[in-house]
Amino acid sequence: MEWLNAVLQGILLGGLYALLAAGLSLMFGVMRIVNLAHGVLAVVAAYLGYFLVDKLSVPAFLCIVIVIPVMAGIGYVLQLGLLNPAIARGGLAPILVTFGLAVVVTNLLQQFFSADTRSIQTGAIATDSIQINDEIAIGVFPLVTFIVGVVVIAGLQTYLSRSRTGRAMRAASDDKDAAQLMGIDNRRIYAIATAIALGVVGLAGVFLGMRTQFSPTYGDATLIFAFEAVIIGGLGSLWGTLIGGVVLGIAQAVGAQINPAYGILAGNLVFLAILAFRPTGLLQKAVNS
Amino acid sequence: MTLLKVDSIDVHYGDFQALYGVSVSVAAGETLAIIGANGAGKSTLMKALAGLMTPTAGSIAFEGRDVTAMPSFKRVGLGIALTPEGRRIFPSLSVEENLLVGGHTRRKGPWNLASVYEAFPLVADRKDRIGIHLSGGEQQAVAIGRALMSNPSLLLLDEVSLGLAPVVVEQIYAALPAITGAGTTVLVVEQDVNQALKVSDRVQCMLEGRTVLEGAAGTLTRDQIATAYFGI
């Protein structure tokens, strides 16, 4: 029964990982950018939430109404000002730019918020749970996180499949020169994609900050978990990212059940196993150019 | 009325010069064919017209407006659409999605999903198929339909017949009267001289980056064309 419990908690944890990884997956899918600043940007969102809730006394869950648009705005400006020029230079430029950005932002966070760990206080919901039976209880907050993760992934997928802008993103992802010939302004489409990605990062960062203690350097671990979720699921597939997050969550929870020290290790081992035996990920993108 | 006026443009790929003072004039409603052998500069000219390359000298005016340095995505909104060499169908999108992306600019005009399907029954049959799974002829038909979705006043068709079976080429060119009939001016680039003469009002022959012959399709003799085409 305790193993079933571990799996259940792992699935719910996977919802948070999927939420954290969705933006990374979207940016890679549309622009082929590996955003190494992804983790630290989630931590920025967490600090923003902390600042709003702790210093300005904004109600905990209401802070996402502010954090999401702020992060989306940062994404839009970041893409137009920094990443589009980097893409135009091609090769390693985008990855180096995002790496540099991660270093700069981490140090800025240290400067303003110190290296102390923080968390966003949510009150009673942090400990509320639904008792299934004597041995299994599901936390309300992890359950909410999981549901939000699934809804966000479904929403993003629908947006990409059905909307005019989403179609333009997929077209630009397939062939950016041909997309220009259809009247699509790639730089603007990319900026919208990054705005959406960072809006989701904003949401994920706030949930992260509510669930756990974070410090300015917490972005590294976040980036690795998000990256593992994307790779396990299959690059460029959003549903894959959800599955990847869940697989990673289960691996960590079951690993921790064996021995509390083995949680992260188990997650990394599953990731390495996927890389070794199924490098395209569990859900391979159906069509690849 | 002159729809497109290209005034002695030079185009370079790095140090290599592909076009030398090429001028083209297209009147609204006419069909002009640019013919010439491989490497004559036909596709380069098309790229310059669509905005994929910027001329190093000379100017391009569309509807009296200078578009020489305008980026390609803005030209689509003005009414210039190109079906590029190699078709460039979006491989992961379905045929219908390819067409919808073609209509991204939401420019008004006679062309929409229904009218494209009517002009190209082949495309209608394949509308749910994914781009990567299309044959060459299907790709070409979708590429033309996709360009039409932007309701262009000038449609640039680059090497429609390249790599296709003659019967497929016939099918695709069969849709041309419907396109010109809807008021679209067409500029075709062709290696196949007979096909070019058949569909066009006027022919311009290029050789090594220069225009060597031009005239009404009916007035040029075979010998004139052969001399211009091969430069002998």
Automatic annotation (TrEMBL), chain A:
Annotated keywords: Amino-acid transport, Cell membrane, Membrane, Transmembrane, Transmembrane helix, Transport
Alphabetized GO MF terms: transmembrane transporter activity
Keyword Acetylation in annotation: no
GO biological process: amino acid transport
Family, per entry: Belongs to the binding-protein-dependent transport system permease family. LivHM subfamily.
Gene Ontology CC terms: plasma membrane
UniProt keyword NAD, yes or no: no
Alphabetical list of InterPro entries matching this protein: ABC_transp_permease, BCAA_transport_permease
TM annotation in the entry: 6-26, 33-52, 58-78, 90-109, 136-160, 189-210, 222-248, 260-277
Cellular compartments annotated: Cell membrane
Full protein name: Unannotated protein
Chief localisation class: membrane
Topology relative to the membrane: Multi-pass membrane protein
From TrEMBL, chain B:
InterPro entries recorded: AAA+_ATPase, ABC_transporter-like_ATP-bd, ABC_transporter-like_CS, BCAA_Transport_ATP-bd_LivF, P-loop_NTPase
Domain ABC transporter positions: 4-232
Pfam families: ABC_tran
Nucleotide-binding is among the record's keywords: yes
Keywords annotated in UniProt: Amino-acid transport, ATP-binding, Nucleotide-binding, Transport
Keyword ATP-binding included in the entry's annotation: yes
Any one biological process term the GO annotation gives: L-amino acid transport
Gene3D superfamilies reported for this sequence: P-loop containing nucleotide triphosphate hydrolases (3.40.50.300)
GO molecular function term, any single one: ATP hydrolysis activity
Family: Belongs to the ABC transporter superfamily.
Protein name as annotated: Unannotated protein
Organism per entry: freshwater metagenome
